[in-house]
Design goal:
- Pfam families: Asp_Glu_race (PF01177).
- GO terms for molecular function: amino-acid racemase activity.
- Keywords: Isomerase.
- By secondary structure, the chain is an alpha/beta fold.
- It folds into two domains: 2-90 and 199-239, Rossmann fold, CATH 3.40.50.1860; 93-196, Rossmann fold.
- The protein has helices at residues 12-21, 43-59, 70-74, 77-80, 91-95, 111-116, 118-126, 140-145, 150-161, 182-189, 220-231, and strands spanning 2-6, 27-31, 64-67, 86-88, 104-109, 131-136, 170-173, 193-194, 212-216, 238-239.
- Helix 9 packs across helix 10.
- The protein starts with a strand and ends in a 5-residue tail after the last strand.
- The mean pLDDT is 95.
- The structure holds D-glutamic acid.
- Residues 6-8, 10, 36-39, 69-71, 110, 113, 141, 175-177 line the site of D-glutamic acid.
Length: 244
C-alpha cells in the first residue's frame, strides 16, 4: 500500500497521477489539515508532526510513503523518519525536471521551504551554473486551501511577484498547493512552470485491490467540499485523530 501525505489538499493531484499510473495499487492519503499551513511552522514542530503523521500512515499498512509536500520534504524527514516505511520526498525529483540549459530559476514556495534553501542546495549540485532565486509566498497555500476565488489569487500574485516578472527562464511551483493556481501564475509570470507532480515510483511488489482511503486531521465537511470543488471527486473521507 502506498501512503501519500500533505498538510492539506496539495498532494491530491500527485495522488491522482499515482493512481492513474498504478490502478491496482491500494492508496491511503492523509491531509494534516488540523495544522495547515505547514509553511509558517518551525522545523522542530514540523518534524514532530511529520513523525506522527507518517507513523499513522505506516500503521494503516503503507510500506511506501510519498511526502507530497515540499515543506515537509525540506525538513529532511526522509532521512530522519524513525519507522520501517520507505519515505519518498519530492524536492530532488522536482529539480530533475528542470532542463540543463536553464540559466535563471525562480522558486516559488512556502516561507519554510524558501528559508530552508533546500532548492538552492539541490540545484547547486545539479545545475551549478544556474542562478536560483527562492521566494516565499506566505498566504497562497492558505488561500487555496480555503477555496479562495481565482481573481483574488491573481491579485495576490500580481502584488507578490511584481519584482520577479522579468529575467527568469522558468518558475518552479515548489508547493503542491500552487498548481491549483497554475493559470493565475501563468498569467502573471508568462514563463514555463514546473511542478512537483511527476514523481516516479518503483513498480509495486504485489498488486493490491485498487482501494483508496482519504483521511484528514481537520474537518471532513471541508475536505469533501475541496475534493468536489478542486478534483471533481465525490468520495468518502474520514476524520482521524493522531495522539501527540
Ligand atoms: N503543500 C505543501 C507544500 O508543498 C504545504 C503547504 C502549507 O501547508 O503551507 O509545501
Amino acid at each position: 500500500m502506498i501512503g501519500v501525505f500533505d498538510s492539506g489538499i496539495g498532494g491530491l493531484r500527485l495522488l491522482d497521477k499515482l493512481r492513474q499510473r498504478w490502478p491496482q495499487e491500494d492508496f491511503v492519503y492523509l491531509a494534516d489539515q488540523a495544522h495547515v499551513p505547514y509553511g509558517s511552522l518551525d522545523r522542530d514542530t514540523l518534524l514532530d508532526l511529520l513523525q506522527l503523521n507518517l507513523n499513522w500512515l505506516e500503521k494503516q499498512g503503507a510500506d511506501r510513503i510519498v511526502v507530497a509536500c515540499n515543506t515537509a520534504s525540506a525538513t529532511g524527514i526522509a532521512r530522519r523518519y524513525r519507522g520501517q516505511a520507505q519515505i519518498v520526498e519530492i524536492i530532488s525529483k522536482t529539480c530533475e525536471q528542470i532542463p540543463a540549459s536553464t540559466a535563471k530559476i525562480l522558486v516559488l514556495a512556502t516561507p519554510f521551504t524558501a528559508q530552508s534553501h533546500r532548492y538552492q542546495q539541490v540545484l547547486a549540485r545539479q545545475l551549478p551554473q544556474a542562478e536560483v532565486k527562492e521566494v516565499g509566498l506566505s498566504c497562497l497555500a492558505f488561500m487555496i486551501e480555503h477555496l479562495c476565488p481565482k481573481q483574488e489569487i491573481e491579485t495576490y500574485l500580481k502584488g507578490e511577484l511584481n519584482a520577479y516578472q522579468n529575467g527568469f527562464d522558468l518558475a518552479v511551483l515548489a508547493c503542491t498547493h500552487f498548481p491549483f493556481a497554475r493559470d493565475q501564475f501563468a498569467k502573471v509570470l508568462g514563463i514555463p512552470l514546473i511542478d512537483s507532480e511527476s514523481i516516479a515510483l518503483e513498480a509495486p511488489a504485489q498488486p493490491g485491490q485498487g482501494t483508496l482511503r482519504i483521511a484528514t486531521t481537520g474537518s471532513v465537511e471541508l475536505l469533501a467540499r475541496q475534493l468536489r470543488g478542486l478534483m471533481n471527486w465525490d468520495v468518502p473521507c474520514e476524520q482521524i485523530q493522531i495522539e501527540v
